[in-house]
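Form P-L/3: holo structure prediction, ligand flavin mononucleotide.
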Amino acid sequence: MNVQNSTRDIFKIIHNRRSIRKFTNKPISDEILETLLKAGVRAPFAAQLYSIIYTRNPEKMKIKCGVYSTTKLLMIFFVDARKIEKIITQRGYIYDYDDINLIWLAIQDATLVAENIILTAEALGLGSVLLGVVPNQWKEIKERFNVPPRVFPIVGLCIGYPEPSALMDVRPRYPLKYIAFKDQYKDLTEKEVQECMKVMDEGYLEQGYYIKQSAKIPLKKELGEDKIDYDKYSWSEHISRKLIQGRWGEKPFISLLRDCGFKLG
Ligand SMILES: Cc1cc2nc3c(=O)[nH]c(=O)nc-3n(C[C@H](O)[C@H](O)[C@H](O)COP(=O)(O)O)c2cc1C
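OUTPUT (holo model):
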């Protein structure tokens, strides 16, 4: 691998990136792996409150957090209070606070690293997709990867060489004027919200995004009959169903963190 030769224009990399969920059989070399990790840790950090566990072992990837079956490399990003506490102890101090501030910073540390890795992967011709349900599989991950207390998984990342048939167009975003506000916050009118929805919904429908992945979220019975078929099922419906149908795992998030040994007031 020659990293120099495979480095493309940064804007192309950013603007062409899209989540990839199907990968070829080509394995990921040690050199590529090291390149990804080294680029990852160059991200800015608040206090390096994170760790990464990576595996290329398909057996190890068999966890219930939605790892795509053709994944060649799985990374899991963790909030890690343990390492910093060891440093604090070595300095002769005691860390004994509510952990929310630490978790807040750690999530930012870890996600910036993940994004560096995502963009580096793209630059090297690899594809990737994040896995958001990882925290709900904390206990399984803990056992599988020998994770100690006060180290909690926040997101996973599947990586591999993209299967050409799985390459879709880049996905839409809200119009920039409804995301970035000059000088002061802008509360959107109903019409502007509809414009956001239209851009997103039409974009996802045109790509057949949900139908291709059979990714429709069933509507809970108490919310009424599900009258939306795949021809109308799009992003705003999907994200609404995802967010209103309660928590995603068996236990509330906060109790998972407490079970993992975090002190939360
Ligand atoms: C925190 C986070 C969690 C995500 N979790 C999942 C996931 O569990 N499964 C999945 O297929 N995609 C997941 N995604 C990918 C998003 O669905 C994807 O980024 C979004 O639809 C925009 O598409 P794009 O990445 O192709 O631009 C996740 C993305 C983020 C940022």
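COMMENT: Residues 18-19, 21, 66, 129-133, 155, 171 surround flavin mononucleotide (CB under 6 Å).
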